[in-house]
Every structure is written in C-alpha cells, then in structure tokens.
Specification:
By secondary structure, this protein is of the alpha/beta class. It contains eight helices and six strands. It has helices at about 20-25, 30-50, 70-95, 110-125, 140-155, 165-170, 220-230, 240-245, and strands spanning about 10-15, 55-65, 95-100, 130-135, 185, 205-210. Strand 3, helix 4 (about 110-125) and strand 4 form a beta-alpha-beta unit. Helix 1 (about 20-25) crosses helix 2 (about 30-50) and helix 3 (about 70-95) packs parallel to helix 4 (about 110-125). The longest helix has 24 residues, at about 70-95. The chain starts with 11 loop residues before the first strand and ends with a helix. About 30% of the residues are buried. It binds 3-methylbut-3-enyl trihydrogen diphosphate (IPE) (2 copies) and magnesium ion.
Length: about 250
C-alpha cells in the first residue's frame, strides 16, 4: 500500500497545514468546518508517519500571527484542539508517540495548557516518534527568545560571549532536542514560510502542493516523500563531494 522505498526517508518532516478556510469556502461551509476537516487530516497524517517509521513530525497548528484572526475563529480552533487531544491521546500513547509542543503555548487558556501538559506527561516515555505541535509559534519570536535567554546566561556568568556558536544557539531554541527538518511540506499552493522554523530550515528541502490541507491524504504524503528521495542535498558542497561522502 505504501510503496515507498525505505532508503533515504526523511527523519524529520515538518508541515505548514494551510488551506482549511479555502476548503470550507469551496464547499460553501464556514471556516470552522474547514478546521474540523483539517483535524481529520492531522489524524491521517500522524498515523501515516508513524506507520512509515518517520521519527520526527512537526505540524504548524497556530502561528503567533493567527491570534489576530476573528475571536470566534480563534475560540473554535482552541476548542477543536482540546477535543482533538482528548479524543486522540490514548491512541497516541499506545502507538509509541511522544507529544511535544513548541511556541508560546504556556500562555494559552489554563484548561488547554493543562490538557497539553497531561498529554505530554502521559507520552513522555514513548520513543518511536516525536510529534511536535507548533502552537502560538513564530520563528522570529523563537529567535528573539533565544537571544534573551543567552543574554541572561551571559549576564549571570554561565556563558561567555566568545563561546556562543551555532550549536550553542540551537540549545536555546524550542527545538533544542529535535534535528532540523529534512522535508518541509506546505499545502494550499502558497509559496512562503510564514514565520515557521526559520533557523531550523536553513538546509531543509521544501515541497509545495496545491492540495488544500483537509484534502491531504497519505498518498499525497507519499508523493512528497518520493520527491524528497529524488533530491540531492548538497549543503554547499559540489555534487562530486556529496557522492564521495555518501560512499563513506
Ligand atoms: C490553516 O488554514 C489553519 C490555520 C492557519 C490555523 P487557514 O485557516 O489558514 O486556511 P486558508 O489559508 O484561509 O485557506
Ligand atoms: C501558516 O498559515 C500558519 C499555520 C498553518 C498554522 P497562515 O494561513 O497563517 O499563513 P499566511 O497568512 O497565509 O502567510
Ligand atoms: Mg492560511
């Protein structure tokens, strides 16, 4: 069913799940109905990634800028999130998935914060797949936050300015325990990063599709992975160097 080659699978897939509103409009429904269908796509894709054996999946669920949407839509999204966590947590737990949340999620309503904390605690020992949800997340906010934390550590004498380098910086990001994404998928035909994983996507492979998020299937995921498998990642080297390096 999968017909994917096991060779050269991405370790970390990140997805900008976009197009719920346009899906709803296309079906003459309200935006919230689009988000509801979007949640079903989340369920499908989490299951698919787990069954393929992807160790890291990161989904962009709500950006720091999405707070500026109409209060009704924001409220509905938060309700959907809480329903989703409650109905799925048992399946997530029993399938070896560890839930992780990045962003300013601690500022969410107490009820949701508690739900997320419980879900993370319940799945903390799982190791087969780390599923990260980016909630109230912004890449620029994340970088500024890291700079502040570094400045505090320097001021307190825990860190010397001359010791700051890329790997030290990485430790101050929300994603300090995740590898950089290998493949970043964005649905709905938009060709932009919208403030997602700015630091981490320096050498990520991008895949854009016109499919709206609620319509995104396991087969669409497979197509993205196959395309990734055909690409040659060079990290600034020449093709010849990469070939030699792969043989090692
Ligand atoms: C993505 O779908 C979900 C969130 C950003 C929360 P959108 O709601 O952005 O859908 P479009 O872009 O309006 O179609
Ligand atoms: C990005 O989608 C955020 C999420 C998918 C959660 P947006 O719909 O908010 O992005 P823009 O506004 O089209 O750039
Ligand atoms: Mg959008």
């Amino acid at each position: 069913m999968r017909n994917l080659e096991d060779k050269n699978l991405p370790r970390h897939i990140a997805i900008i799940m976009d197009g719920n509103g346009r899906w709803a409009k296309k079906h003459a429904l309200g935006r919230v109905a689009g988000h509801r269908r979007g949640a079903e796509a989340v369920r499908r894709i989490v299951r698919a990634c787990r069954s393929i054996g992807i160790p890291y999946l990161t989904l962009f669920a709500f950006s720091s800028e999405n707070w500026q949407r109409p209060a009704r839509e924001v409220g509905a999204l938060m309700r959907l999130l809480s329903e989703y966590i409650q109905s799925e947590i048992e399946e997530i737990r029993s399938n070896g998935i560890r839930l992780n949340v990045i962003g300013e999620w601690q500022t969410l309503r107490e009820h949701i914060r508690q739900l997320l904390e419980d879900a993370m605690a319940k799945t903390a020992k799982n190791e087969d797949m780390i599923w990260t949800i980016a909630l109230s997340y912004g890449g620029r906010d994340e970088i500024v936050r890291a700079v502040k934390l570094i400045a505090e550590d320097v001021a307190q004498g825990f860190l010397r300015p001359e010791d700051i380098n890329q790997s030290v910086f990485h430790r101050y990001l929300y994603t300090s325990d995740l590898p950089d994404p290998d493949l970043l998928i964005r649905t709905s035909g938009e060709y932009r990063i919208s403030n997602f994983l700015l630091w981490q996507s320096a050498y990520t492979e991008f895949y854009f599709t016109d499919v709206l998020w609620p319509d995104f299937t396991e087969e669409d995921l497979n197509s993205a992975i196959r395309e990734y498998q055909r690409r040659e990642r060079r990290f600034g080297l020449t093709a010849e160097q990469v070939k030699r390096w792969e043989k090692l």
